């Protein structure tokens, strides 16, 4: 079985469970990688028994279509952690039935299980039904090719048997032990390969979960640092607001003091002007007094003998 994987999904957005259609081998077609969410239910009963639907998983799971080139068959697989939820081989006589506008189901008699899917819309349900029919037709073609190949090999074996004398010992009705082993061997090999693939998928899921957990922890630490930085910035802003308020108060006080000093300066200037005026008046009076004294001396001198 090849490891190449191509996803061909519907691109649905608003249902509950994750579904991806995955094909392996040469029959895989290139398609856009899209995802859809569906509600996955199962009933552990015979296909004809009516039971209440119960969730097949408590969390979102991936449901995958793939082509098993070893067994020349198509399967639907779903794994939730280490638990295999769906391992259904699609057969040509299998039918996907629309039981309501948003719900459909198919019965797997081999797995003794009826699987149901709930969709967000009738259009999404129709798309899934079309894909199921497409895969079922592919399964029919694969079976027909396998039968043709088997008939060709059988005819070739019969012709070889007629041409070559048989020297083998008679076998029992159920076949010899070697024949039993030859039939069981490929089946066991396929199951082993499938188990290894599922184990690898589980390990990959666990690895991804650990990676996402580490990334989540890193994001939490970064968020915590950002919260601390934001709180520190908020504290600094409050401190700056207080300092600004203090500066404004000091500025207002200085403005008041300047106004007061300017008023005092105006009063001093007025006093200086008054003093200058008084000094000038005093000088004028002194001059007048001197003039009067001079006149008096002159007058007195004129009366002397």
TrEMBL record:
Residues 25-139 form the WH1 domain. It is found in: Cytoplasm; Postsynaptic density. SUPFAM superfamilies: PH domain-like (SSF50729). SMART domains: WH1. One of its GO terms (cellular component) is cytoplasm. GO terms for molecular function: G protein-coupled glutamate receptor binding. CDD domains: EVH1_Homer_Vesl. Residues 139-183 are annotated as: Disordered. PROSITE patterns: WH1 (PS50229). Pfam families: WH1. Keywords: Coiled coil, Cytoplasm, Synapse. Residues 188-295 form a coiled coil. Residues 152-175 have a biased composition (Polar residues). InterPro entries: Homer, Homer_EVH1, PH-like_dom_sf, WH1/EVH1_dom. Its main location: cytoplasm. Residues 139-151 have a biased composition (Basic and acidic residues). One of its GO terms (biological process) is G protein-coupled glutamate receptor signaling pathway. Belongs to the Homer family. This is WH1 domain-containing protein. It comes from Mugilogobius chulae.
